Amino acid sequence: MTTRQFTISELADLGVPPSHPSDLEYSDTLLVDHAVTTLKYTAMRRCVFRAEDDGRTYAVEYEAEIDMGDFEVGSGRPDNHGWHGDTVEATAVEEKPVIVKRWEPVHGQPAATGQPRTGPIESLTALWEATGATPEEAREAAARWIVDHAGEAADLRDEYLFGGDDQ
Asked: How far apart (Å, rounded) are the C-alpha atoms in residues 73 and 52?
């Protein structure tokens, strides 16, 4: 894992962390800022940004104020965004599509148990198209993935059908 040390001043010059969500809309440097977890009086957030000097993308976590409404819990502002010391360690990151399994509502007739609604090429093509690839690029990437990972997929299928961890 590649990391880099930034001074708090260097991060401030880059606009990290953003002072308002709309800062991301008008910045070429700030790419993403999202919640990681909620602490007792603050929120832990993660900001992804591009360093202008090396062109790489990095992520840092920081603490942010939570709007507690009418509850009195103190100032709610973490000292120095929860960063201790003069530097903050940032992790080099890159954007990658991630496939996750989740439960979705059934539209129309449900498929038979254990049977895919579409073939593997169509399913993977739809995933790559969702990341912004053209239909031709998506279909090529799907086919290439199937060829590259056929052995792994067969092993997973056998494990799923014939024992192993709960699915």
From this structure: 38
Rounded to whole angstroms, how far apart are CA atoms 154 and 167?
A: 16
CA angle 121, 125, 129 (to 5 degrees): 175
**Residues 128-153: what's their mean pLDDT?**
84
Residue by residue, DSSP assigns 77-142 as PPGGGG--SSEEEEEE---------------SSPPPTT--SS-HHHHHHHHHHHTT--HHHHHHHH
Cα 26–29–35 angle (5° rounding)? Answer: 85
β-sheet bridge partners, residue 30? 49
102-123 burial, b at 16+ Cβ within 10 Å, e below that, comes to eeeeeeeeeeeeeeeeeeeeee
Tokens of 94: 């890159």
8 Å CB contact between 129 and 119: no
**CA–CA distance, 38 with 43 (Å, rounded to integer):** 4
Write the pLDDT tens digit of every residue in 48-90.
Answer: 999 999 999 999 999 988 876 666 555 556 777 889 889 999 9
